[in-house]
Design a protein that fits this description.
binds zinc ion, alpha/beta, metal-binding, 4-stranded antiparallel beta sheet, Cyt/Met_Dipeptidase, Alpha-Beta Plaits, 19% strand
């Protein structure tokens, strides 16, 4: 690298930093957050479309992308946006992904002074639904490219962008879209951002994700409730049966008791990769007892009860419910027999004496688990670039603990996938008071600008598709 190149890299990274410190990011993010682009029950198709037509399309068009908005291949699905910017077919092509949809605002659960669709700054925090998940994350990546384009007039690589609007409903239709548009999306690597950093003060990269599968459990014994005095002791209580059934799936510290639900992939190299990660917040008496906290969350499977219901919790009646139901979820790493999960649960419940518990997959698509080798040249390259910009080594995770539609990129598009998250674990995504941290945003802008400059300079030596 020559002296003048280095000045350029440093100057551009300084400009990236100013975009955050001088308020540009806050202004742009406020506009993005004001779109109620909810893909779950509170949302409307108009708001999903408006995020693409009102924000992503103009921004990318101004950057010289050839932008198209596509109908979802599945009926009733949300639209998708693609952007393509080819400088020279001989250069590497980077695919950037983001999701513009958010989960329900749940305004009543946010604390006083905060409102989900109004960006609110308090000290170094920016609050709003979708700030962390995922609006600021793709905003940063697009703005880093925009900055380089403004300063240099070119990126030095080809860029493609895909923005979906259904990630919070299991990326409905995304895989079908990728199958249809393989040529349009053909690239050499996915560089994207979602999820949290492992520790807020250290850059993180990960190459895959755990999968997630929801399962509905129902005990439906009779069409109506019955007086708990007149029938108590005579009629079976579906809530008690359901509670026992759920309790049979794990032990009291949440260790899964269904053998077929466990992975075979916690091999010595993965344990080695997880060994030096900083400690995670955890309850000492919870989870797989013989594993470290990092192994529990990045290398193992876990079950959660997402919701359970019978009667009316706000005004309980003196009655035995006719029906009780719950939705549970399995989070799993690669090396889990996904197709076997529901059959194994059925066999388990029958064996444990719960034939009355009906089992079916929850609405919405399951996320599959993926993991990309930590020693791939693209992984090493990105790790090196992040370390140079940040001045310290990033945390490198084989996979994220949460779920992403990463299999669509690895399996359908055949890409190495590298995620550089710009959020932090306590960001409140999927709950009230979601927020991002300005220092992490600033470093995120610096990291991505440095990374894109490095791809332009040295990316031609990295493995290409095919
Ligand atoms: Zn999410």
């Amino acid at each position: 690298m020559s002296i003048s190149d280095m000045t350029t890299r440093q100057d551009l990274i300084a400009a990236a930093s100013r975009y955050v410190t001088e308020g540009g990011l806050e202004t742009d993010l406020a506009r993005l957050v004001a779109h109620k682009s909810v893909s779950q029950s509170e949302g409307t198709p108009e708001d999903l479309m408006a995020y693409l037509t009102g924000e992503m399309q103009p921004m990318l068009t101004a950057m010289g992308f050839d932008v198209a908005i596509h109908a979802n291949p599945r009926p009733g699905g949300a639209p998708l946006l693609t952007g393509v910017r080819i400088e020279d077919p001989a250069l590497p092509t980077v695919l950037v992904y983001g999701h513009g949809d958010v989960c329900n605002g749940e305004a009543h659960r946010w604390r006083e002074g905060l409102s989900p669709f109004v960006l609110t700054r308090e000290d170094d925090k920016l609050y709003g639904r979708g700030t962390a998940d995922n609006k600021v994350q793709h905003l940063i990546n697009l703005k880093a490219m925009e900055l380089i384009l403004k300063e240099n007039g070119r990126l030095g690589f080809n860029a493609k962008v895909i923005i979906e609007m259904a990630e919070e409903t299991g990326s409905y239709g995304l895989r079908d879209f990728f199958e249809e548009k393989k040529d349009l999306l053909a690239s050499d690597v996915l560089i994207a951002s979602d999820g949290p950093r492992l520790a807020a003060d250290t850059p993180t990269m990960f190459m895959g994700s755990r999968g997630g599968m929801g399962i509905d459990l129902t005990v439906d014994l009779r069409p109506s409730d019955h007086h708990s005095g007149n029938f108590g002791g005579l009629l079976a209580d579906p809530a008690i049966i359901l509670a026992h059934a759920i309790a049979s799936i794990t032990d009291k510290r949440g260790q899964i008791r269904i053998k077929e639900w466990l992975p075979d992939s916690l091999t010595p190299d993965i344990r080695e990769a997880l060994k030096d990660l900083p400690p995670r917040r955890h309850d000492a008496d919870w989870g797989q007892e013989d594993l470290t906290p990092s192994e529990r969350v990045f290398g193992w499977n876990s079950m959660a009860v997402l919701a359970m219901a019978n009667g009316n919790i706000d005004a309980p009646q003196n009655a035995i419910s006719g029906k009780a139901r719950a939705t549970i979820q399995l989070r799993f790493v690669v090396g889990t027999d996904v197709e076997g999960v529901i059959p194994a649960l059925r066999r388990h419940l029958d064996r444990e004496g719960f034939p009355q518990v009906a089992v079916k997959p929850s609405r919405g698509e399951a996320f599959r688990a993926t993991r990309f080798p930590p020693d791939h040249p693209w992984v090493k390259f990105v790790e090196q670039s992040l370390a140079e910009t940040a001045g310290r080594k990033p945390h490198v995770l084989p996979n994220l603990a949460g779920s992403l539609p990463n299999d669509a990129f690895t399996e359908i598009l055949g890409l190495p996938t590298i995620w550089v998250p710009h959020s932090h674990a306590e960001c409140g995504q999927h709950g009230p008071n979601e927020h991002v941290l300005l220092p992490v945003m600033e470093e995120g802008m610096r990291l991505m600008t440095g990374l894109f400059l490095d791809i332009a300079e040295k990316g031609q030596s990295l493995p290409r598709r095919g």
